[in-house]
Amino acid sequence: MRREDRATAPSCPRCGYDLSGQVATWETRCPLTGVCSECGLDLSWTEVMHPERLKVRGFVEHEHGWRVLSSAFRTLWWALLPWRFWTRVRMEHPPRLGRMALWSLSVFLGCHLVFAGMRLASIECMMSTIRTMGRMVPGAAMGRLEWYLNCVLTPLLWYEPSGLRSDLPQVGPFVILVGEWPAFAWGTVVAWIAFPAMVMALPVTRTRAKVRGVHVWRAFGYSGAGLIIFLLPSLVRAIDTTWSICVDNTFATGVARPGPRGSLVLIAIMIGWLAWWWGQAWRRGMRLARPVLHIGVLSIVAGMGALVSAGIADSDVLLLMWP
Ligand SMILES: [Zn+2]
Q1: What pLDDT digit, counting tens, does each position of 154-193 carry?
Q2: 5-55 per-position pLDDT tens digit
Q3: Which pLDDT value is given to residue 5?
Q4: CA 45: distance to chain centroid?
Q5: Domain tally for the chain?
Q6: Which residues pair with 175 in a beta bridge?
Q7: N or C: which end of the chain has fewer CB within 10 A?
Q8: Which residues are near ligand 1, the ion (C-beta closer than 5 Å)?
Q9: From CA 38, how far away is CA 20, in angstroms rounded?
Q10: Distance from the CA of 92 to the center of ligand 1, in angstroms?
Q11: Residue 247 falls within a domain, yes or no?
């Protein structure tokens, strides 16, 4: 079979098996539904023959022009409630991984900018209090431009005019901060990557279930919506700063990162959400059996990976778990 024939040949949405052999057996009538002889998926032949006709209104992969922007927000809203996403987006809708990657990147950047905006607002609040109260706090010596730069560049780089952090690698006047990521950030990122890595790697899951890798990639890409959890500490921090300035008439000068207990709570929320997401992807998205067993095992392993990485990043987290 030539390459271009293969590209248009009817294939199973789940396992990619070439179904032209089945189609060739049709002589007098064309059935509306069928079953994939490779993976057992129930098929609608219209959808198999013309996948390009299937469109989900408001889904970022299927919109064009300016509507892509509004659909990006709608897709994020669906993705935060996994059952909502997976009842709309099905395997039959041909994945557009480039569009998905762009969406994931935008969600990351968008979250980061909101994060930076919150920090900026609390720093502005702090600065104005310093001016009116005439008190000095650490960091107040830095100019507004440096603070703005730091808000946009953290958690990767931090501007350090006095070179206080000479223990960390430097790029000109900037200090590289990747090693300074809070424990909860390590835990949630490890959990986010662990789920698809295990689905792809474990023969008992993907190979036996005969699911095309592209569906796992899609589930991984949109599960990036869960990383919005990164906003929670800065939200708490912004509320705390505003509260202390407006109500207590002081200002909190602690570091904007949750303590060991807060880290554990955030990691637990992330694991719970990911288990919900992958459970829905497994059952509704890929229409596979035994979601509770498979996703339960994945959640336990991903949870352990997340806790170990958080424990390595911050030994206080480890002490809280095993005193
Ligand atoms: Zn199949």
Answers
A1: 777 877 776 566 677 777 778 887 767 788 888 999 999 9
A2: 445 789 999 999 999 999 899 888 888 999 999 988 999 999 998 888 888
A3: 46
A4: 34
A5: 1
A6: 158, 170
A7: C
A8: 12, 14-15, 17, 36, 38-39, 41
A9: 13
A10: 11
A11: no
